[in-house]
C-alpha cells in the first residue's frame, strides 16, 4: 500500500513570507482556501506532474493544483487528450475530474507574491516534493513544468543541474532510479500568449511521456 499523502499542514509556517501572504489573502479573500495546495491524484500513479506554485485566484482559491488557473485550461485539456483523466475538468474542485495514472503537485505549495517564490522558499518546500516522489511506488515519469519545477526536482534527487540541464522537450534518465524526467516550458498564460509554448509543443511532450510509460 502506498504511504499517506505527504502534504504540508494547512497552517504550515515554514516560510514566514508565504505564511504572511496567506494571512493577507485570507482577509481579502475569505472564501479561498489560502493554504498549501495538496497534491491531486493517487499515490499509485505512474506520472507525477510538477508545477511551480498555486496561482492566487486558482489553486490558492480552489485547493487543487492548476484548478481555476489559466494554466489549468491547457494542462487539463492535454492530460485528457493523452488519457490521463476522465476529461471532466471544469475549473472547480467538485467538477468530477479524476486523474488516471497521474498526479499533480507544485514545487512550492503556497501561493507566492507575484508568482515568484524565493530560492529559500523553493528549498524549504522541497522535502514535500521528495516525500511525494518517495511515496509513489509506481512512478515512471515526472513532468517538470518550467525551470523552477525542473531545478527543484533535479535537486530532490541530489543531482547537479549540469547532470540534467533544463530544456523544453528534454528527457533525462535519473541515475539509479527507474524513471525519467521530462521537461516542458510552463503552460502559463505568458508562455502560451507569446507563443513560447504552443499546444502542439505541449502535446508532443505528453506524447513522449505516453510512449515512455507504454514501453515501461
Ligand atoms: N497553478 C498551479 O497550481 N501551479 C502552477 O505552476 C501554475 C498554476
Per-chain topology:
Layout: H1 16-28, E1 40-41, E2 47-51, H2 59-62, H3 70-81, E3 102-106, H4 119-134, E4 141-145, H5 147-156, E5 171-173, E6 180-184, H6 189-193, H7 199-215
Parallel strand pairs: 2-3, 2-4, 4-6
Antiparallel strand pairs: 1-3, 5-6
Helix pairs in contact: 4-5
Task: Tell me about this structure.
It is globular and about 50 Å long. The two termini are 21 Å apart. It has 216 residues and is an alpha/beta fold. The chain is built from seven helices and six strands; from the N terminus they run αββααβαβαββαα. Helix content is 36%, strand content 12%. A hairpin with a 6-residue loop joins strand 5 and strand 6 (180-184). The mean pLDDT is 96. It has helices at residues 16-28, 59-62, 70-81, 119-134, 147-156, 189-193, 199-215, and strands at residues 40-41, 47-51, 102-106, 141-145, 171-173, 180-184. The protein binds uracil. The site of uracil has 13 residues, from loops. Uracil (URA) binds next to loops.
